[in-house]
Amino acid sequence: MAFVDTVLARLPQPVRSLLIKHREMLKFAVVGGVCFVVTNAVNYALKLTVLNRNPVTALIVAVIIATIVSYILNREWSFRDRGGRERPHEAALFFLISGIGVGLNALPLWVSRYLFDLEVPHVTLLTQEIADFGFGIILGTLIAMVFRWWAFKKWVFPEAEGRVRPLRVVPTDEDEQAA
Question: What pLDDT shows up at residue 173?
Answer without folding.
Answer: 64
